[in-house]
Amino acid sequence: MPKTTSKTNPARELVFGDLWEYDPAPETADPKLKQRYDLFINGAFVAPKKGSYFATINPANETKIADIALADAADVNSACIAAQKAFVSVWGKMPGKERGKYLYRIARLLQDHAREFAIAETLDGGKAIKESRDFDIPMAAAHFFYHAGWADKLEHLAPGRKVAPHGVVGQVIPWNFPLLMLAWKIAPALAAGNCVVLKPAETTSITALKFGEICQEAGLPNGVVNIVSGAAETGAAVISHPLTTKVAFTGSTEVGKSIMRSLAGTDKKMTLELGGKAANIVFDDAPLDQAVEGIVNGIFFNQGHVCCAGSRLLVQESVADEVLAKLKRRIAVLRVGDPMDKNTDLGAINSREQLAKITDLAKSGVTEGAEKYDTGCKLPAKGFFFRPTIFTNVSMSHRIAREEIFGPVLSILTFRTPEEALEKANNTPYGLSAGVWTDKGSRILKMSAQLKAGVVWANTYNKFDPTSPFGGFKESGFGREGGKQGLLDYLSVV
Ligand code: NAD
Q1: Is 420 annotated in the active site?
Q2: Is 93 left (phi over 0), alpha (psi -120 to 50) or beta?
Q3: Is residue 61 helix, strand or coil?
Q4: Strand, helix or coil at 283?
Q5: For position 1, what pLDDT does the model report?
Q6: pLDDT tens for residues 102-121?
Q7: Binding site membership of 404 for ligand 1 (Cβ less than 6 Å)
Q8: Ordered structural domains, the chain, with CATH
Q9: What is the torsional sign of CA 344, 348, 431, 395?
Q10: Residue 12 reports pLDDT greater than 80
């Protein structure tokens, strides 16, 4: 290949993708969407009492997909009453082995409808279809399978003691992994014998409401699962309702703090899964090509809309130039564009508001003196898109090193000694996740023990499994989701 420069970005050398293009490979199956989605309460789809709806759009082309019911406090009240009735009359007293059968059924139905759900998720949320298809939906099913197995073995969670469900659980989730976050919440709650009222995020309600159809198909008793769509006010109504004895929230630290304040003095149980600003630490003895794949996965997976994203790269000074060169070469071939194309790596940013937030923080990086590099790739004319972006010359005081960007923007800092890496990694109010790349097992163990993060990945990044508890320290929240620890958060132990 002749060594020349790209037309769109003269600072960049031409790479394979500039000369050769993939043919379009759009996913074309029917996601079986409705034009209007009602609330799922007591086993049926019902119109909101006030008859209010809001539009959900496709962030990749800004066209309307459907009208979504807007639940108010009266609708949330109906959902909570239905959940309480189901808990007292059926679900709370059903033997675990019978409850487990329903969870298995839901898991299998999610697999049966996987393609439909993957497409709906991508249309409504903007994530690349290969991620919805290969990660979100299979993992959601896996959570139901895993928790189905626990339903009749709960006494083994706390040997010698008694466990009991809380009753009605109020759950509020964000938009970055809509169905998967629902599965993280509903599967353990049901396995433990609780009934739920769940509010999806306002930009991504479709797969949650489609999940209502799965509950119907599974023959789940009425009222065990209730889905109330809406925005912040609906979430607040779920959380503050007197019948919700436990609250499980995933979202921003700011809202998490306001929920804590509003529930102070009540005896509601609470788990909060909040934001993050993870350090992904690369030592000079790390397998660098493998590390670069981990860096790319860490920050560009799901357009960086990941709470545990490795958004701060800490690289040892002696290999910083080499890592940066490899990273630039690697991101130059990332494909940004139509999320429905099977070859797309980065799809659309979830909403106009989120795009504005990412743009603002990236601008602050430039203003504060960091050096910005993006791939210069062409973006679609419509929709919300942001190029994979990396910042060098970042200092710890820059906003891009401190604030959660929740987009495809990586801040690169360097360090000389393991102590300096630890000091920088832990110098954040967050504590959700971290990555360590090194050839030395002893260094992995030492770093993992001293990093203040709920999850530490070693020589890999963004690995998830239903058996493995996930959750934060400090302002990243408390409580765990997944594994035995996650299930225990849905039970009282006496
Ligand atoms: P957000 O806090 O704005 O909203 C989350 C959910 O809470 C939405 O459903 C929203 O409608 C609802 N909500 C907003 N205000 C509320 C209120 N006052 N009372 C009750 N509900 C309210 O967050 P977001 O922008 O949707 O999601 C992104 C955030 O979620 C990021 O900070 C990310 O790190 C975090 N997140 C954390 C995890 C984790 O496991 N720790 C996982 C995914 C996302």
Answers
A1: no
A2: alpha
A3: coil
A4: coil
A5: 43
A6: 999 999 999 999 999 999 99
A7: yes
A8: 36-274+476-493 (3.40.605.10), 279-465 (3.40.309.10)
A9: positive
A10: no
